[in-house]
């Protein structure tokens, strides 16, 4: 994967992390929220398809304010049953596109304002996906 950044809306540490990991990504300011889209994001075995586009919405005030939930395209389902993953059966429109919303949350007392980063949130997303529910 080739790392790309279109607008450099993220803090330098996040841009460096995404580049170091080789993510193909884009950033866009949507009404004060930074939308970070990771292309070809790998999904663990319980899910189909094997890769997706992953949208992370970075709120105003970040990194003091923590990201919440994440979104995927195309729809992701549980491979063994074809069912929707838990808390992921709703869709929301962003920038004219429909995204599958994953209602997964970092408890506010677990986000360390000013310390945690996009890397922290991606780790949380991966842990949630590894649960396979």
SSE blueprint and pairings:
Layout (H helix, E strand, L loop, with lengths): L11 H10 L3 E6 L2 E10 L4 E2 L2 E8 L11 E4 L3 E2 L11 E5 L2 E6 L15 H13 L3
Antiparallel strand pairs: 1-2, 2-4, 3-6, 4-5, 5-8, 7-8
Describe this structure in words.
The protein is globular, with a radius of gyration of 14 Å. It has one domain (12-130). Residues 1-6 have low confidence and may be disordered. The strands form two sheets. A six-stranded antiparallel sheet has the order 1-2-4-5-8-7, with no helix packed on it. Helix content is 17%, strand content 32%. The chain has two helices and eight strands, in the order H-E-E-E-E-E-E-E-E-H. It is of the alpha+beta class and 133 residues long. It has helices at 12-21, 118-130; strands at 25-30, 33-42, 47-48, 51-58, 70-73, 77-78, 90-94, 97-102.
Question: What tags apply to this protein structure?
Answer:
about 15% helix; globular; alpha+beta; about 130 residues
Binned, the helix content reads 10-25%
> Uncertain runs with pLDDT below 50, 5 residues or more?
1-6
What class would the helix/strand composition place it in? alpha+beta
- Helix and strand element order: HEEEEEEEEH
Largest sheet: 6 strands, antiparallel
Number of individual domains:
1
Percent strand equals: 25-35%
What's the mean pLDDT score?
91
Radius of gyration: 14 Å
Helix count from the secondary structure assignment? 2
> What is the distance, rounded to the nearest whole angstrom, between the alpha carbons of the first and last residues?
27 Å
The geometry reads as globular
Order of strands across the biggest sheet?
Answer: 1-2-4-5-8-7
Number of strands: 8
């Amino acid at each position: 994967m080739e790392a790309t950044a279109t607008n450099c809306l993220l803090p330098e540490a996040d841009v460096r992390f995404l580049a170091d990991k080789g993510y193909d990504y884009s950033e866009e300011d949507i009404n004060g929220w930074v939308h970070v889209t990771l292309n070809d994001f790998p999904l663990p075995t319980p899910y189909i398809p094997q890769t997706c586009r992953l949208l992370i919405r970075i709120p105003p005030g970040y990194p003091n304010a923590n990201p919440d939930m994440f979104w995927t395209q195309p729809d992701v389902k549980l491979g063994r049953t074809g069912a929707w993953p838990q808390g992921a059966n709703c869709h929301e429109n962003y920038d004219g596109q429909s995204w599958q919303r994953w209602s997964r949350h970092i408890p506010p007392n677990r986000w360390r304002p000013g310390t945690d980063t996009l890397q922290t949130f991606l780790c949380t997303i991966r842990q949630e996906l590894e649960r396979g529910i």
